[in-house]
Amino acid sequence: MTDLPQYDPMIGSDAPVPVANIDDPHLRESVADPHRSERAIAVYLLLGIVGVAVFGAAYWQNWEPWTLGVSLGAGLFFLGFAMSAWGKYLMPQGPFSEARHALHSSMAERDAIAAALVERTGVVVRRRSMLLGLLATGMGIFGVVAVFPLLRSLGPLPGKALDKTNWRRGSLLVDASGRAIHRDELQPGGLVTVFPAGYETDPQTQAIDQTVLIRAQTTALVTEPGRASWAPDGYVAYSKLCTHAGCPVGLYERELRLLVCPCHQSMFNIYNGAVPQFGPAPRPLPQLPLYIDESGFLRAQSGYDQPVGPGFWERSS
Question: Does residue 273 sit within a domain?
């Protein structure tokens, strides 16, 4: 314990301002062999760096899932263990006590002691430059790896993919097995999910192309002004993607004339352009204009006149 001059209220304090010093007993490590501990912690930091780096490579190259878990777990474990060991064995542990004068100091003395405390804190960290460098390297690599989801998992920009489907003028309506839909296929109240021919088994486009075909009646149906020819022989087709959250709208209440989304119970009236009658859906289901060719098979007059599914940024309609 260091003896300090006593404070005299008449002449002020002559107590020396403590400065950072490697030999200060307050800064000494709590272990008998600090160099051995430093080497051990360095090994743990290196193992943590390797683990985090391997996780980054595994994530980027899409390796087996177990490699992701093992590498990330090992990397974080060794980095965390090294930081804990550094704090426990190489940092001052205290508690410390020393003689002091009366707690009355000038502003200059207060500023000096504050600066000394900051300097003391810095010294015990800077003296372990190798460990500090390894820790910074490990945390830096982990920071870069943590950004990988923004670079890889989000995938390419959708561009115009959300605006268009594979329905075109003359597209033949087929079911999931590729069988074309004839005008005599369904009775009133019948329903089938259809796709444009050639895309019924394409997993990349099935989701946006899926369309629910209903035979509402046996005569032509006009769902809205300007759509006089869109539903020949009572066949009406709407996108199967709910405009609320994209769930498949596959239930039909014939008596109520409503298509029902099973996810959140949005209901669409097929006789008036699939305008929502109930539920959270904000917009009608897009209608696919149909015609019947000379062989009696149903085809699309054109593609959808608006994007299908729920809303998204940059949607124009």
Answer: yes
Beta-bridged to residue 212, according to DSSP, are 193, 238
Residues 191 and 244 grouped into a single domain: yes
One DSSP character per residue, 284-304 reads: PPPEEPEEE-TTSBEEESSS-
**Same domain (yes/no): 128, 217:** no
Residue 212 and residue 103 in one domain: no
| CB atoms inside a 10 Å sphere around CB 94 | 8
pLDDT tens for each residue of 173-192: 999 999 999 999 999 999 99
Tell me the one-letter amino acid at 227.
Answer: R
Assess if residue 7 is contained within a domain: no
Q: Considering the domain boundaries, does residue 162 fall inside one?
A: no
User: What does the alpha-carbon distance between residue 284 and residue 306 come to, in Å, rounded to a whole number?
Assistant: 11
The verdict on 240 and 286 lying in the same domain is yes
Q: What pTM did the predictor assign?
A: 0.56
The answer to whether the CB of 298 falls within 8 A of the CB of 235 is yes
Instruction: Give every CB contact of residue 300 below 8 A, 6+ residues apart in sequence.
Output: 167, 168, 169, 170, 171, 173, 196, 237, 288, 289, 290, 291
Classified as helix, coil or strand, 269 is strand
